[in-house]
Amino acid sequence: MGTMGNTNDIFELGRSTLSGIENRLGMSRRDYLQFCATLAVTMGLPKGADAAVAKAIETAKRPSVIWLHFQECTGCSESLLRAEHPTLEKLILDVISLDYHETLMAAAGHQAEAARKDAMKANKGKYVLVVEGAIPVKDNGIYCKIGGHKAIDLVKECAADAAAVIAIGSCASWGGMPSTGPNPTGASSVAEVLGKPVVTIPGCPPNPYNFLATVVHFLTFGKLPEVDQLGRPKFAYSRLIHEHCERRAHFDAGRFAMEFGDAGHRQGYCLYKLGCKGPETYANCSTLGFGDAGENNWPVGCGHPCIGCTEKGVGFTKPIHQVAKVINIYPPQQYPRIVEENGKGASFASAAALAALAGAAAGAATMLTRNLGLSHAAEEAAKAKTSAQPKAEDKVSS
Ligand code: FSX
Ligand code: SF4
Ligand code: F3S
After folding, report:
1. Domain boundary residue, one of 214, 235, 256
2. Quick check: CB of 169 below 6 Å from ligand 1?
3. Ligand 2 centroid to residue 258 C-alpha, Å
4. Burial readout 150-167 (b: 16 or more C-beta within 10 A, e: otherwise)
5. Are residues 307 and 173 in the same domain?
6. What pLDDT does 303 receive?
7. Are 169 and 72 in contact (CB under 8 A)?
8. pTM metric for this prediction
9. Is 182 contained in some domain?
10. Best of 102, 171, 201 to mutate for ligand 1, by most ligand atoms within 8 A of CB?
């Protein structure tokens, strides 16, 4: 890896080499550098690292990526390549050379098989294998076949000559939804099938930036990021969601939503009593919004309890209404601010795109997000203005 850049490098980079990126992506230099800064921050890199990231993306050879799909819903790919966010999609396809992806490639049948074999041969020992979905192992693995090959054989064949293996999504990371009891197909994780640890990016779906940051780390530093004992990059999965949740101050103050739609829910109170699993789930959802629809674009930000989708033994295992085990009872040293404008993070453009592309339902969801996100203080201020007395049915339980 080269030395980390500094702020001057960023401007130098902007003047000297970024015109290529501008042309390729049809995006402004400012947006591109902002994207690099987001990735650098996601990885927890020190100040100035965004210049090194920008340079690596601009100059390094795009790694060949072979992307396999097994037992899953394709939500991981959807989350990465959302039609609503063409900029993100373009960036991803510029950062990596996606040589084989069953959902996206135009080729079919023997042509598709040939594309996979060609990419593996041409990039032997250098390609990144991304696996989405669990692998069924019961009854000799007959429950998932692609092109006549069993998933269990395909993953072993493709992993043999890969420089790195990344399991994307909870299904590939630990079995996810397909492994829910009684797990009739024996849905298993990539690490279990390969018999060795791999990098895992759990989440159903995972935050696209966590995947991108992992790939860009590989590109910038020539190695994958540091991981925990479950293979999860530490930059994203070392803290509990509950530690940085925007509703944490409500939890500590004992202000809870007791029912969906009650006064507490509408005022953005803590969702613990509705079964939120944030206190026992490790992920950065509370600090990094999904996609580019705004900082509050995550389950709790939208008024839904976290179901612990990143965490084996929690997501798809514990009943949604069951209260979470509070792993860390200590209050944080610093409280995240109760975001007054909670739910207003979505840019006008992305909210409009959501509404236009996904129809009225998404538009309504955006409005709901905004309404649910109104903070206690904002409601109180509004109430004071109109001198309205709270109604009996609006009483908040705690
Ligand atoms: Fe779906 Fe991916 Fe969930 Fe699994 O995400 S969003 S079922 S983790 O493998 O496609
Ligand atoms: Fe946030 Fe859930 Fe923790 Fe409440 S229980 S503070 S909603 S993570
Ligand atoms: Fe999943 Fe909970 Fe994050 S449900 S997306 S781990 S907030």
Report:
1. 235
2. yes
3. 13
4. bbbebbeebbeebbbbbb
5. no
6. 95
7. yes
8. 0.77
9. yes
10. 171
